Structure formats: structure tokens, C-alpha cells
Amino acid sequence: MSAPVVYFVIPCYNEEEVILQTAARLKEKTRALIDAQEADAKSRIVFVNDGSSDSTWEKIRSLHQEDAVFSGICLSRNRGHQNALLAGLLTVCPFADVTISMDADLQDDVDAVDAMLAKYKEGKDIVYGVRSDRSTDTFFKRTSAGLFYSIMRLMGTETIDNHADFRLMSARAVEALSDYKEVNLFLRGMIPLLGFESDVVYYERAPRLAGESKYPLSKMIHFAMQGVTSLTTRPIQFITRLGLVIFLMSIVMLIYSLVRHFTGATITGWSSLMVSLWAIGGLILLSLGIIGEYIGKIYLETKERPRFLVAEFLDEEHGFVYGQKP
């Protein structure tokens, strides 16, 4: 089996503080893979600029001018991490045998790539990078992460625990992913749906080199909601079951009220009335909100707007995107 053409795909958003260090580390790893004949000499490192407002794109341009091993994809505007990652995967798919996606902060272990490529040679189309432990995280981070994966399982979403977006995908796996046309992306849940043979590689996640996390608590909550409502209708099923339970409870309350009426105890408690009103009102609003999330997603899907637009593609050898000059 000849050495595969490996493309690293790195989504970037305001990463000017760390991108040069990341580039140096990835270049070192790519050269080592090529020298060891584990990767073809045509292998590349592709940075995807997701509408950064700092000098990230200028630094990517400079890297490309200095060394052809670096390529760059610039999106027309900020589209979010998942869309930027998908843009990179789909753009390089025609040129790569293997794509390896990872974050720009280099918290993912670059040396784990060797084990990933070994799994690929064994016939695995998808290899997930999975954190071996979360001991370096804060208590809140560990608890919230555990809660996130528990909710995902409860809602029937297939995900890999302690896996983010550090993964290897073969060319045919990426091609299969391109057939999934939804606008609301949650790649961590979509990729297991492909069904290709997969495996995991465990690694220790390093501290962020510089800058700040692009996923504060508010974005993590939104991301979890995106994952659940994009991949499963179980929340709506829960609403149906909850409605049935409340209906049965109302029958019980009706019988109770009739008994109280015919026994002469017709004065009901104010507290129970207020609690019932607030509880039912809250459940109704919650149910409407969940249904509204799905209706909103249907609205976005029916528009069939592009998930991303590539403004520029820096690559001396290929220099085009989907068959057209940038």
C-alpha cells in the first residue's frame, strides 16, 4: 500500500496569537511523515479562515508564500466552526486520500496522527481522537461535559464520548459526508451515521498555546441544542408523552374535584391552584419553544442556502474550488 496523500484541515477564527506555532508544529509532523514514507510528498496543511477579524488570514497568506506545504481557504464571512470544518473537508477531498481535522490551538496531540494512520492502513475509514482523561479540566468543565454526553445518549444521538473534532477520515468517508445536505450541522453526530468501519485513538489533551477558547458556556449550550435538534426528534416525542401524562393527571384531578364537590368540601386551596397554573403554563411555553426550534430549522433547510462560500483558495498545484478559479 503506497503512502496516502494526507491533508490536515484546521479551522481558524481569530487565531493570530497561535497560528505560527501551530504551523511550525504541523510542518514538522508532516515532514516527518513524508520522510518515514507514511505520507505522500503531496500532503498539505490547510488552514480554513472562518471570517477572522484579526490578522489570521494575512498570516496564512505569508505561510503559503514561504512554503507550499501550507494551503489556505478563506470563507466569504464567518460561518461557524462546523461549517468552516466542512468547507475544508469538501474543498480538499478531490486531492486527499486522508483528511485529518484538528483545532488551531494545538490542544489535540499531533503525535496521535501516527496511530491514526496505522488504523487507516488496517482498513478503518474513520478514526476518532478521544481524550484519555479530563483530569486537567475544572470540576465545572468535567461535570458539564459528562452531562452533555449523557443528554446526547438520552436523546438518542450517536456520539463518541470525549471526542471533539480531532479525527481522520478517508476520501470515501468525506465523499459520503458530502451527500448530507442539511444546513444545521453537528458533525460529531453526523459522521457516526456514515456507518463506515471506525476506531478510536486515545490521547492526552494539552493546554491551549495562546488566546482564548472559542466555546464559552453560552456557545456550548447552543451547540448541544444544535446537536439534539439536528439529529433526533426525541424531544418532540417527550412532549407527546408529557402531554399524555398531564392529561391522565387532569382526569385524576377531575375525579378528585367531583368527589370533593359531592362530599360538600368545595373550597379548594389557593396554593395548589397557583402551582398548577404556573406548572402548566411553564410546560406549555417549554413545549412551544422546543417545537419552535424544529420549525426554525425546517425554515432554514427549505431555503437551501449554501452552507459556506469560499472567497479564496491558496494552493499552487490545484488553485481552484469546485472547478472554478477563486
For the structure shown, list the relevant keywords.
326 residues; alpha/beta; Spore Coat Polysaccharide Biosynthesis Protein SpsA, Chain A; 2 domains; eight-stranded mixed β-sheet; 10 helices; 15% strand; elongated; disordered C terminus
Structure description:
- The protein has 326 residues and is an alpha/beta fold.
- The chain has two domains: 6-216 and 306-314, Alpha-Beta Complex (Spore Coat Polysaccharide Biosynthesis Protein SpsA, Chain A); 234-303.
- Helix content is 48%, strand content 15%.
- The chain is built from ten helices and eight strands.
- The protein has helices spanning 19-35, 56-66, 81-92, 112-121, 139-154, 171-177, 187-190, 217-231, 234-262, 270-303; strands spanning 6-12, 44-49, 70-75, 98-101, 126-131, 163-170, 198-203, 310-314.
- An eight-stranded mixed sheet has the order 7-5-6-4-1-2-3-8, sandwiched between helices.
- Strand 2 (44-49), helix 2 and strand 3 (70-75) form a beta-alpha-beta unit.
- The longest helix is centred in the C-terminal third of the chain and has 34 residues, at 270-303.
- The two termini are 34 Å apart.
- Mean pLDDT is 81; it is low at 320-326.
